[in-house]
Amino acid sequence: MTLKRSEVQVLSRPPIMKIKFRKDNREKYWKIEEAIIQKQVKKKDEKFVLSGPWKKFIKSQHGLKIYSVDGEWMRYNIMWWWGHGGHGYVCEYIPLDEIWISDTHPEKCKCKNVKKNRELSQRYFESTLYHESLERNLMEKGIIYWKAHQIALDLEKKLELIKTGYFENYSELTTAEKKSTKEIFKSYSRAWKLK
Question: Global pTM?
Answer without folding.
Answer: 0.86
